[in-house]
Design a protein that fits this description.
Helices cover 52% and strands 7% of the residues. The chain contains 12 helices and 5 strands. The chain has helices at 17-30, 54-70, 88-97, 102-106, 109-115, 123-137, 151-168, 212-220, 238-251, 255-261, 267-293, 296-325; strands at residues 3-8, 36-41, 78-82, 143-145, 176-178. Strand 4 (143-145), helix 7 (151-168) and strand 5 (176-178) form a beta-alpha-beta unit. Helix 3 (88-97) crosses helix 6, helix 9 packs across helix 10 and helix 9 (238-251) crosses helix 11 (267-293). It is globular, with a radius of gyration of 21 Å. The chain starts with a strand and ends in a 6-residue tail after the last helix. Bound molecules: tryptophanyl-5'AMP. Tryptophanyl-5'AMP (TYM) is lined by residues 6-9, 18-19, 22-23, 42, 45, 132, 135-136, 144, 146-147, 149-150, 183-186, 195-196. InterPro entries: aa-tRNA-synth_Ic, Rossmann-like_a/b/a_fold, Trp-tRNA-ligase, Trp-tRNA-ligase_bac-type, Trp-tRNA_synthetase. This is Tryptophan--tRNA ligase. It catalyses: tRNA(Trp) + L-tryptophan + ATP = L-tryptophyl-tRNA(Trp) + AMP + diphosphate + H(+). It is found in: Cytoplasm.
């Protein structure tokens, strides 16, 4: 069966609507397809820039697992695990690092953006996308559901797979990114030229755990434009189109249909409808999340089971790769 693989960093206490509509919503839906599905929390990636306090990282990793479950990722149908629980990721990453040009790694836009912010930059930030390539290739994944900002990393992954296959013989599946259409890049509500991100001020970010009144206030204050007409036109009307795309995704309708439904109405009506729909989504999410957070032992059991499913597949790929590279097999 084709394999689906994706990861998310346990970087904050709450995921935002961009994470959900760009990635997690697809993750949950792909479980209904005839695929083998692997979703992991990229805790190794979470220490590349501004590593959190150890206790905070531990807590966020369990919190992230709970959020995946609340978003509809089902441990019966998906392997849910922590990256640090499967040794193969770093074992494969080393080989891929030796296949990647230094300049090639430096050209990654996320590296350039993050390293350009004046913070101290680790070598781990530079090799981050190579570890990501290992995350994907180690499971021979066919499909990688992600938001637009991960497209370049999946492209690098494809290049490394092809390079390895060319040099050492057919070994890796060359994966395809699955990127949603209208919500590939959910925009910040205050600054709709930037993607919604935990590193921007909170007023523009819809956190899945925000209380209803906070979500409503943020949506009502969203930046629009000086026209009055509601159209889906991301280039000319990024703020309004972002609200239309959010409403469409949360209510599972096409963007054009949502936009057409507001013909003759003003931005206030649109914002009211977006607020109602986002609140209606967030309330059951928060309830479900609280239930999972109440039982950390169960979360640990789910993560252990997920790692047990992932480990043999990862180990087999590492064995194969190490043999092809010419490392002597241990007896
Ligand atoms: P991360 O943790 O930053 O984000 C998780 C997912 O959320 C998507 N996303 C968005 N989608 C739409 N609009 C937004 N504003 C928005 N913000 C975030 C991201 O595209 C991503 O799909 N490097 C990855 C984690 C990773 C990974 C992997 C992913 C590590 N190894 C292997 C896939 C396969 C990351 O930092 O995502």
């Amino acid at each position: 069966r084709p394999r689906v693989l994706s990861g998310i960093q346990p970087t904050s206490a709450s995921y935002h609507l961009g994470n959900y509509l760009g990635a997690l919503q697809q993750w949950a839906r792909l479980q209904d397809e005839p695929y083998d599905v692997f979703y992991f929390l990229a805790d190794l990636h979470a220490i590349t820039l501004n590593p959190p306090d150890p206790a905070v990282l531990t807590q966020r990793s369990r919190g992230a697992a709970a959020q995946l479950l609340a978003a509809g990722v089902d441990p019966e149908r998906s392997a849910i695990f922590l990256q640090s629980h499967v040794q193969g990721h770093t074992q494969l990453s080393w080989v891929l690092e030796c296949l990647t040009g230094e300049g090639e790694a430096r050209r990654m836009t996320q590296f350039k953006d993050k390293s350009g912010r004046g913070e101290s930059v680790s070598v781990g930030l530079l090799t981050y996308p190579i570890l990501q390539a290992a995350d994907i290739l180690i499971y021979q994944a066919n499909f990688v559901p992600v938001g637009e900002d991960q497209r370049q990393h999946v492209e690098l992954t494809r290049n490394l797979a092809q390079r390895f296959n060319g040099r050492y013989g057919e070994t890796f599946v060359v994966p395809d990114a699955l990127i949603p259409k209208a919500t590939a890049r959910v925009l910040d509500l205050q600054d709709p030229t930037s993607k919604m991100s935990k590193s921007l001020p909170d007023a523009g970010t819809l956190n899945l755990t925000d209380p209803p009144a906070v979500l409503t206030k943020k949506i009502k204050r969203a930046t629009t434009d000086s026209e009055t007409e509601i159209r889906y036109d991301p280039a000319a009307k990024p703020g309004v189109s972002n609200l239309v795309a959010i409403l469409a995704a949360v209510t599972d309708q096409p963007v054009e249909q949502v936009a057409a439904g507001f013909a003759g109405q003003g931005y206030g009506a649109l914002k009211g409808a977006v607020a109602d729909a986002v609140v209606a989504f967030a309330e059951p999410f928060a309830r479900s999340l609280a239930g999972y957070l109440d039982d950390p032992a169960e979360l640990d059991r789910i993560l252990a089971r997920g790692a047990e499913r992932a480990r043999p597949i990862a180990a087999e790929t590492v064995r194969d790769v190490y043999e092809r590279v010419g490392f002597v097999a241990p007896v």
